[in-house]
Write a structure and sequence with these properties.
- The protein is globular, with a radius of gyration of 19 Å.
- The chain is of the alpha/beta class.
- It contains eleven helices and 13 strands.
Length: about 325
């Protein structure tokens, strides 16, 4: 059973591809290798997949936001299931470059829906985000909560993706699962994320910018736990039985939070990084950035109930693993 994984050169897409390939399942990876962050890092991820899994992995370099290009790139390839993880990421960058988000996250998502519809795919799993909860002050965030007040365009595009998916599930009975990821971190992570930026600055002897005056909390989720949740979702498409699913849909469409179910103080994360690096950080306290939220905290009861999802990796274990990988990759 071949799976198409979009954003295969990205952080989560790389790890999901690796897990599926390790199970002996062929993967078609799709990515346009944009330069939002290091293209070399993306190519290194893909090189690792090719080296370790050979002919089981087939890479397609194309832009899924371009309807003509993506149709031509995929027309001769056979696949059934789709894991759509490709997107223009980043809350803060969406303020600087909003059109990139409209193109990749809205038009791109629509293109994947059309591909899944035309091929009668058995399941489309796609990436949403905890950002959809916006300024929600009720903790933990539940999939049943209203998410009508996004604080960034990035969040608005992810909410829009959920709405488009609901429409396709209703009209075409296309089985789909949307996953609201909560602050994913780990080896082969993203250079624009705080954890990477902090480690990089500490080893360079530079100060770290601690936004929100340090009074922020995040539900940090280790990449291995995220991948376990993604694959469990992929293996269990929602039934088209007219019953209410997680998130409220009566079509074959579910929404799940996928997090660690533990909100951690930013200061605790920094302490663990300092311990793993063996150096103290020079902290520069900064105000909240536009589009940021003060705290995230996932209620994962729905995905626990339906898929048996149970995250296992605490930040006490996961952060040192990330720092070890960072040192190895950069030769620090």
């Amino acid at each position: 059973m071949t799976t198409l994984v979009t954003g295969a050169a990205g952080f989560i897409g790389f790890h999901v591809s690796q897990r599926l390939l390790a199970r002996g399942e062929p993967v078609i990876g799709l990515d346009n290798f944009n330069d939002y962050y290091s293209v070399q890092l993306k190519r290194d991820r893909i090189a690792k997949l090719g080296k370790e899994h050979g002919n089981g992995f087939h890479m397609v370099e194309a832009d899924f936001a371009d309807e003509g290009v993506i149709r031509q790139a995929l027309e001769r390839l056979d696949f059934d299931r789709i894991v759509h993880l490709g997107a223009q990421a980043g809350v803060r960058y969406s303020i600087e470059n909003p059109f990139a988000y409209a193109r990749s996250n809205l038009l791109g998502h629509l293109n994947l829906l059309e591909i899944a519809r035309a091929r009668r795919s058995s399941h489309l799993v796609y990436a949403s985000s905890s950002s959809v909860y916006g300024g929600n002050e009720t903790l933990p965030f539940r999939v049943e909560d209203r998410v009508d007040h996004p604080l960034s365009l990035y969040a608005a595009t992810k909410k829009s993706d959920e709405l488009m998916s609901e429409t396709y599930a209703h009209l075409y009975r296309l089985p789909q699962t949307g996953l609201r990821f909560f602050t994913v971190y780990g080896p082969w992570g993203r250079p624009d994320m705080a954890m990477w930026l902090f480690v990089k600055a500490i080893y360079a002897g530079e100060p770290i910018n601690v936004f929100g005056e340090g009074n922020m909390r995040r539900d940090f989720t280790y990449i291995d736990d995220i991948v376990t949740g993604v694959v469990a979702a992929l293996d269990n498409p929602p039934p088209d039985d007219g019953g209410a699913k997680a998130g409220g849909s009566k079509a074959p469409h579910r929404l799940y939070n996928i997090g660690n179910h533990k909100s951690e103080e930013l200061s605790r994360m920094i302490e663990l990084i300092e311990e793993a690096c063996g150096r103290k950080a020079q902290k520069r306290l900064m105000p909240m950035q536009p589009g940021d939220v003060r705290e995230t905290y996932a209620d994962i009861s729905a995905i626990e109930r339906d898929l048996g999802f149970a995250p296992e990796t605490t930040i006490d274990v996961g952060i040192p693993r990330f720092v070890d990988w960072y040192r190895s990759y950069h030769g620090v």
